[in-house]
Design brief:
With 232 residues, this protein is mainly alpha-helical. Helix content is 61%, strand content 0%. The structure holds a DNA duplex (13 and 12 nucleotides).
DNA sequence: TACCAGGTGACTG
DNA sequence: CAGTCACATGGT
């Protein structure tokens, strides 16, 4: 791989190309900040459509609010959220989330969201079952504070573009974007949504480079096309 | 049919 | 600190 050190301008070129291709996408697909949080937990390493089924099951059972989650047995929650996968683990995560919001914020999720960005992020990560990505999902899409979200797609696309990130941790990728882009909620919101769409439709594990809108900007894409054409 | 999907925590060397 | 594993359903 090359060792490209892209500038803000390069990142914005990719953003513009993706926006022209797919956007605007208006993430997060949820009716409320609270639903963003519950959905973020349920979609961990899981297709969104499966998380949606779990959300619908909770709603259909009338088990929705923090108080509802707090009052429901973990094993009963696990039955309802079964379609989201990892249902035993995720039921425990929902219980932990509800327990902390009840304990520290009087069961008022909005109160938690009002914390300053870094305090909010730290408070979320401190909850068992909420890691860096889920915390950033909630900070960005529920609290609407500029915190760049890194996921599987983000890492894959960055690597294929040939962009050189200093390190391989979640924080290294996050810093890569945040150090080059203005801390703008709308920009971070749309950028992550677009990377997600691109990763799921085009920059897949087996990439569809021939009709990729980022081809001219992508080391891997150009290399793949050359190999396909047999020009070495 | 394997593989993959909007991760996280526990455990190990 | 980096690598490995369990956790699990549903779509292609």
């Amino acid at each position: 791989m090359p060792d490209l050190n892209p500038t803000k301008s390069d990142l914005l070129k990719v953003f513009a190309a993706l926006l022209k291709m797919y956007g605007p996408l208006h993430w997060w697909p949820a009716d409320s900040a609270y639903e963003v949080a519950i959905g973020a937990i349920l979609t961990q390493n899981t297709a969104w459509r499966n998380a949606e089924k779990a959300l619908a099951n909770l709603r259909g059972a009338g088990i929705w609010s923090i108080q509802d989650l707090h009052a429901t047995e973990q094993k009963d929650l696990s039955i309802l959220i079964r379609p989201s996968g990892y249902f035993n683990i995720k039921a425990r995560k929902l219980k932990e989330f509800a327990r902390v919001v009840v304990r520290d914020y009087q069961g008022n999720f909005e109160m938690l969201l009002k914390l300053p960005k870094q305090e909010l992020r730290a408070a979320l990560i401190n909850i068992w079952g909420i890691g860096e990505e889920t915390a950033d999902d909630i900070v960005l899409y529920a609290a609407k504070k500029p915190s760049f979200v890194v996921d599987t797609y983000t890492r894959r696309i960055v690597k294929r573009l040939g962009w050189s990130v200093d390190g391989n941790s979640y924080g290294d990728y996050k810093h890569f974007f945040e150090s080059r882009l203005p801390a703008d909620t709308k920009l971070f919101n749309e950028y992550h949504a677009l990377l997600d769409r691109h990763g799921s439709t085009t920059c897949r594990p087996q990439p569809l480079c021939t009709h990729c809108t980022l081809l001219s900007l992508c080391f891997t894409g150009k290399r793949n096309i050359l190999q396909t054409e047999g020009s070495g």
